Amino acid sequence: MRVDLGNALETTPGLTTATLDRLDDRVAAAHERIAAGMADDEFGYAALNLPETADPDAIYAAVDEFDRPEAVLTVGIGGSALGAATLSNALSGDVDAYVLDNVDPDDARALLDDLPLNDTVINVVSKSGTTAETLANFLVVREAMADAGVDWTERTLVTTGEAGNLRQLADRHDLPSLPVPDGVPGRFSVLSTVGLAVAALQGHDVEAVLAGGRDGMAALSGSLYESPAYAYGAATYALAERGALTNAVMPYAESLETFAEWFAQLWAESLGKDGLGQTPARALGATDQHSQLQLYRAGPPDKLVTLVRPIEREEVPIPETDLDGLAYLGGSSLGGLLDAEFEATEASLAAADVPNVRVEIDRVDERALGELLFGMEAACVLYGELASVSTFTQPAVEWGKKAARGLLGGGDFAEADAVDEKRELRID
Question: Where in the cell is it found (predicted)?
């Protein structure tokens, strides 16, 4: 992973090299704290050890319980699903991957009607084993399989903690299962059993993903000028402090669109604390050049744009044409056009004084993805250290969970009482 901060200098808001030099001392201190947390396997910091502590053999052994399926369906929500979806959507393969991560009844029914349930592995993921949305969806999936004459116990992989409903279910039915690692919040769990089981079921190289993560670990150092992850984390923090309160992440590869979703959860849930944080926005190059770019370039000066691209990609030639207005395209390629669009957007933002940061990986493959995902996690942790926020907690999320559970009769939670206090100004 490589990071170029050049287009974040002397912009509005923006940085200077002097700003980065001053910040570098704080980065060194933050790195010491992060390294100590990793060494002690502290809650949250343990996630940055996953490239070394995750056990690919255990993952392979669990998925070997199944013949290569036609499809795999992950039933989870948030960090229990987005990491797996990021990898499966980025890496092409013969096994189709789907995610059931919401409780929209129309979507759930349409998905289950289309799936070849007799040749689908259900990958149900919940650290607590009590997540309402995940368990509700799993019960629906289980019934659909039974209605289709499929023995769900022969098609289900469970990833969960040491206790809870899912652990009891796995033990009762002797289901293949994987442990959720201790001390790792869900949004930081992509390089663990939580994110890697689907990749293994699809036949991807899990060890290469972890090797990429180790590349990212090796690049961490006490200076932002020596660590791409810390350079990104420090720059985004400093820009937010100066007013860039929206971070629009814009990959120039269709296969990385879900990566932007994963990033949005990581950034929002980790850093949105105590009136601080930077709102992640999701865009896709070149598609959103024709829509969102108008706002980024000409709207309020409160944004950073993160442009992400692979250097190498397969080429699709653009045929020659005798149309005068399109002759310039003939002999080029779709990849060449996409790169030109990337550089044009970058230049367009710079010309409008909008800060933008370039993030590049070699190609979209297992090793590069492992490094990119680890790098963004490390960047997020560094940002949290610099901002002095509690990076690994999510109290606002937990409040909402309690309110919903109370409304459903799952316990007596004061948060549920707030529903009755809703203000109304109705226009019918």
Answer: Cytoplasm
